[in-house]
Amino acid sequence: MAKEKKTYWLGSLKVTLVDADAAEQACDAIITAVDCGGMWSGGVNSAVNSLGGPEFHRLAREYPARFNGDSIIFRRIREHTGGFRDVIVMYDGLTCPLGGMVVTALSTADYAGLKVVCLPALRTGSRLGRFEPDVSAVVREIVTALKNVAARHRQALQEVIVAVRGNKEVFVTLAYDLERAQFG
Fold it and tell me: Please, what sign has the CA dihedral across residues 157, 26, 24, 46?
């Protein structure tokens, strides 16, 4: 259950900002970042493993092409307890801005026919400061990516749930920037 929830419209794309666990959101897929060696770390990846099972981690490690910025969708193999069905793995070597990779991951979802995708507030936990210098820079990348996706002709994607878990600074900054993007 979300502690706080706000809804924004970027054109016809619904963006729901929640202060809640990304892996518990009811969605077609959750986006997660994995390093280019297929190694998983961080809170979202731990949740994917515990709720979705080890199959997603195994698939990401075995996938042959792992270039920075690549995204691939791994379909659910078995029933699991997560709110998500599938996992979109975004290979992130921390060598380029987050925004382009988010656009690629959301485009992957759209091309796969997914309607609702959960985007955790990536690079705001253990990876904060490793490419973007601060929360404001990460939020700018996320919001710009959402605006770019909203401006494109989409086939399926209708909603992106942006999940921030317990980080008031990230939540407030995202809320402010999404409000400006909605009317700007």
Answer: negative
Residue with token string 């690629």: 104
Closest CA to 110 of 81, 142, 53, 148: 148
Tell me how far CA of residue 55 lies from CA of 117, 150, 162, in angstroms.
Answer: 20, 32, 24
pLDDT digits (tens, 9 = 90+) for 131-157: 999 999 999 999 999 999 999 988 999
Section 164-177 average pLDDT: 96
Directed axis angle between helix 135-151 and helix 168-183, to 10°? 40
Structure tokens at 32: 């997660």
41, 123, 124 from 95: Cα distances, Å: 17, 12, 16
161 neighbors 4 (Cβ within 8 angstroms) = no
| Nearest Cα to Cα of residue 46 among 30, 63, 27, 68 | 30
3-state secondary structure (DSSP) of residue 147: helix
Number of residues assigned to the chain: 184
Helix then strand count (H, E) for the chain reads 5, 7
> Domains, the chain, ranges and CATH?
5-183 (3.40.220.10)
